[in-house]
Amino acid sequence: MKLINIINSYSEEGDLPRFYLKADTALLRNNDAFYIPDCVGRIVAEPHIVLKVSRLAKCIGERFAPRCIDGVMAGVTFTAIDRLEEARRDGLPWDEAVGFDHSSALSLDTLSRDDMLQGATLYINNIERLRLSVDAMRFSADRVVSHLSDKMTLRIGDLIFLGSPEKFDIAVGDNIKLKIGERTMLDFDIK
User: What pLDDT does residue 168 have?
Assistant: First the structure.
Protein backbone atom coordinates (compact mmCIF):
# COMPACT_ATOMS: atom_id res chain seq x y z
CA MET A 1 0.00 0.00 0.00
CA LYS A 2 1.23 3.46 -0.91
CA LEU A 3 0.38 6.70 0.87
CA ILE A 4 0.48 9.44 -1.74
CA ASN A 5 0.40 13.06 -0.59
CA ILE A 6 -0.51 15.84 -3.01
CA ILE A 7 1.29 19.06 -2.05
CA ASN A 8 -0.03 21.69 -4.45
CA SER A 9 -3.80 21.18 -4.53
CA TYR A 10 -4.40 24.58 -2.98
CA SER A 11 -1.35 26.50 -4.23
CA GLU A 12 -0.16 27.91 -7.53
CA GLU A 13 2.95 25.69 -7.67
CA GLY A 14 3.32 23.77 -10.92
CA ASP A 15 0.93 22.92 -13.72
CA LEU A 16 0.37 19.34 -12.57
CA PRO A 17 -0.24 17.69 -9.20
CA ARG A 18 3.01 17.31 -7.22
CA PHE A 19 3.33 14.58 -4.67
CA TYR A 20 5.51 12.58 -2.31
CA LEU A 21 5.13 9.04 -0.96
CA LYS A 22 5.09 7.61 2.54
CA ALA A 23 5.52 4.06 3.77
CA ASP A 24 2.52 2.29 5.26
CA THR A 25 4.19 2.51 8.71
CA ALA A 26 3.21 6.19 8.65
CA LEU A 27 -0.45 5.23 9.20
CA LEU A 28 -2.11 6.10 12.50
CA ARG A 29 -5.41 4.26 12.79
CA ASN A 30 -8.28 3.64 15.20
CA ASN A 31 -8.31 7.26 16.45
CA ASP A 32 -5.19 6.37 18.44
CA ALA A 33 -3.35 9.28 20.04
CA PHE A 34 -0.54 10.89 18.05
CA TYR A 35 2.66 10.99 20.11
CA ILE A 36 4.94 13.83 19.10
CA PRO A 37 8.35 12.28 18.40
CA ASP A 38 11.27 13.43 20.53
CA CYS A 39 13.78 15.92 19.14
CA VAL A 40 11.96 16.87 15.93
CA GLY A 41 11.11 20.47 16.74
CA ARG A 42 7.89 22.11 15.61
CA ILE A 43 5.11 19.80 14.39
CA VAL A 44 2.27 20.94 12.14
CA ALA A 45 -0.95 19.15 11.19
CA GLU A 46 -2.73 19.30 7.84
CA PRO A 47 -6.26 17.94 7.27
CA HIS A 48 -7.01 15.99 4.08
CA ILE A 49 -9.80 14.32 2.21
CA VAL A 50 -8.36 10.93 1.27
CA LEU A 51 -9.21 8.86 -1.80
CA LYS A 52 -9.15 5.07 -1.45
CA VAL A 53 -8.08 3.29 -4.63
CA SER A 54 -10.34 0.35 -5.49
CA ARG A 55 -8.71 -1.16 -8.57
CA LEU A 56 -5.45 -1.41 -10.43
CA ALA A 57 -4.92 1.75 -12.46
CA LYS A 58 -2.21 2.51 -15.00
CA CYS A 59 -2.48 5.42 -17.48
CA ILE A 60 -6.16 6.02 -16.71
CA GLY A 61 -7.91 8.92 -18.44
CA GLU A 62 -9.76 11.44 -16.28
CA ARG A 63 -13.16 10.23 -17.44
CA PHE A 64 -12.37 6.70 -16.16
CA ALA A 65 -10.80 7.83 -12.86
CA PRO A 66 -14.08 7.62 -10.86
CA ARG A 67 -14.09 3.87 -11.46
CA CYS A 68 -10.79 3.60 -9.60
CA ILE A 69 -11.93 5.21 -6.35
CA ASP A 70 -13.79 3.10 -3.80
CA GLY A 71 -14.66 5.98 -1.53
CA VAL A 72 -13.28 8.76 0.61
CA MET A 73 -11.81 8.88 4.07
CA ALA A 74 -10.52 11.62 6.37
CA GLY A 75 -6.85 12.10 7.11
CA VAL A 76 -4.47 14.34 8.99
CA THR A 77 -0.77 14.42 8.17
CA PHE A 78 1.93 15.56 10.56
CA THR A 79 5.16 17.24 9.48
CA ALA A 80 8.30 18.08 11.42
CA ILE A 81 8.40 21.54 9.87
CA ASP A 82 11.92 22.50 11.03
CA ARG A 83 13.31 19.30 9.51
CA LEU A 84 11.36 19.90 6.30
CA GLU A 85 12.80 23.40 5.95
CA GLU A 86 16.33 22.03 6.50
CA ALA A 87 15.77 19.31 3.89
CA ARG A 88 14.44 21.81 1.35
CA ARG A 89 17.32 24.22 1.99
CA ASP A 90 19.95 21.47 1.64
CA GLY A 91 18.25 19.73 -1.31
CA LEU A 92 17.73 16.53 0.70
CA PRO A 93 14.80 14.09 0.64
CA TRP A 94 11.82 14.93 2.83
CA ASP A 95 11.46 11.44 4.33
CA GLU A 96 12.68 12.28 7.84
CA ALA A 97 10.36 15.29 8.08
CA VAL A 98 7.18 13.76 6.66
CA GLY A 99 7.44 9.96 6.68
CA PHE A 100 8.05 9.06 10.29
CA ASP A 101 5.91 6.38 11.97
CA HIS A 102 2.27 7.38 12.59
CA SER A 103 2.60 10.68 10.71
CA SER A 104 -0.66 10.08 8.79
CA ALA A 105 -3.87 9.68 10.77
CA LEU A 106 -6.61 7.91 8.82
CA SER A 107 -10.29 7.43 9.60
CA LEU A 108 -11.74 3.96 10.04
CA ASP A 109 -14.83 4.65 8.00
CA THR A 110 -15.04 5.05 4.25
CA LEU A 111 -17.76 7.22 2.75
CA SER A 112 -19.03 7.32 -0.80
CA ARG A 113 -17.07 9.30 -3.36
CA ASP A 114 -19.92 11.82 -3.55
CA ASP A 115 -19.57 12.60 0.17
CA MET A 116 -16.35 14.49 -0.51
CA LEU A 117 -18.44 17.15 -2.23
CA GLN A 118 -19.70 18.14 1.24
CA GLY A 119 -16.15 19.12 2.17
CA ALA A 120 -14.42 18.58 5.47
CA THR A 121 -14.09 20.63 8.65
CA LEU A 122 -11.11 20.60 11.01
CA TYR A 123 -11.53 21.30 14.71
CA ILE A 124 -8.64 21.75 17.12
CA ASN A 125 -9.72 21.70 20.76
CA ASN A 126 -13.36 21.91 19.59
CA ILE A 127 -12.73 25.20 17.76
CA GLU A 128 -13.40 25.19 14.03
CA ARG A 129 -10.12 26.04 12.29
CA LEU A 130 -10.61 25.16 8.60
CA ARG A 131 -13.18 24.12 6.04
CA LEU A 132 -11.82 22.07 3.16
CA SER A 133 -13.64 22.23 -0.14
CA VAL A 134 -12.87 20.11 -3.17
CA ASP A 135 -14.23 22.98 -5.27
CA ALA A 136 -11.30 25.13 -4.11
CA MET A 137 -8.71 22.57 -5.26
CA ARG A 138 -6.70 23.42 -8.38
CA PHE A 139 -6.89 19.83 -9.61
CA SER A 140 -10.02 17.70 -9.50
CA ALA A 141 -9.84 14.31 -7.82
CA ASP A 142 -10.18 12.72 -11.26
CA ARG A 143 -7.25 14.71 -12.63
CA VAL A 144 -5.13 13.73 -9.63
CA VAL A 145 -5.91 10.03 -10.11
CA SER A 146 -5.26 10.23 -13.85
CA HIS A 147 -1.95 12.05 -13.37
CA LEU A 148 -0.75 9.67 -10.67
CA SER A 149 -1.67 6.65 -12.78
CA ASP A 150 0.57 8.03 -15.55
CA LYS A 151 3.51 8.19 -13.12
CA MET A 152 3.03 4.91 -11.25
CA THR A 153 0.65 2.00 -11.07
CA LEU A 154 -2.04 2.60 -8.49
CA ARG A 155 -3.02 -0.54 -6.61
CA ILE A 156 -6.04 -1.58 -4.59
CA GLY A 157 -5.78 -0.03 -1.13
CA ASP A 158 -3.48 2.85 -2.08
CA LEU A 159 -4.44 6.10 -0.35
CA ILE A 160 -4.28 9.53 -1.96
CA PHE A 161 -4.20 12.43 0.51
CA LEU A 162 -5.58 15.30 -1.58
CA GLY A 163 -3.84 18.16 0.20
CA SER A 164 -4.60 21.02 2.53
CA PRO A 165 -4.56 24.80 2.16
CA GLU A 166 -3.19 25.39 5.67
CA LYS A 167 -0.88 23.95 8.32
CA PHE A 168 -1.64 24.16 12.04
CA ASP A 169 0.85 24.04 14.90
CA ILE A 170 -0.03 21.37 17.43
CA ALA A 171 1.06 20.70 20.99
CA VAL A 172 0.71 18.04 23.66
CA GLY A 173 -2.83 18.13 25.05
CA ASP A 174 -4.53 19.20 21.81
CA ASN A 175 -7.51 17.31 20.41
CA ILE A 176 -8.11 17.02 16.67
CA LYS A 177 -11.46 16.30 15.03
CA LEU A 178 -12.10 16.07 11.33
CA LYS A 179 -15.60 15.83 9.90
CA ILE A 180 -16.74 15.12 6.37
CA GLY A 181 -20.11 16.76 6.05
CA GLU A 182 -21.68 16.29 9.48
CA ARG A 183 -20.01 12.95 10.20
CA THR A 184 -17.07 12.89 12.62
CA MET A 185 -14.42 10.77 10.91
CA LEU A 186 -11.42 11.43 13.17
CA ASP A 187 -11.28 12.36 16.85
CA PHE A 188 -7.94 11.86 18.61
CA ASP A 189 -5.52 13.46 21.08
CA ILE A 190 -1.97 14.75 20.79
CA LYS A 191 0.41 13.40 23.45
Answer: 98
CA angle, 27 then 73 then 21, to 5°: 45
Beta strands 43-53 and 69-80 are antiparallel
pLDDT tens by residue, 22-32: 999 999 999 99
Number of H helices, E strands in the chain: 3, 12
Burial zone of 63 (CB within 10 Å; 0-12 exposed, 13-18 middle, 19+ buried)? exposed
Farthest CA pair distance, the chain = 46
Nearest to residue 106, comparing CAs of 68, 149, 42, 157?
Answer: 157
The per-residue DSSP string of 138-176 comes to SS-HHHHHHHHHHHS-B-TT-EEE---S--EE--TT-EE
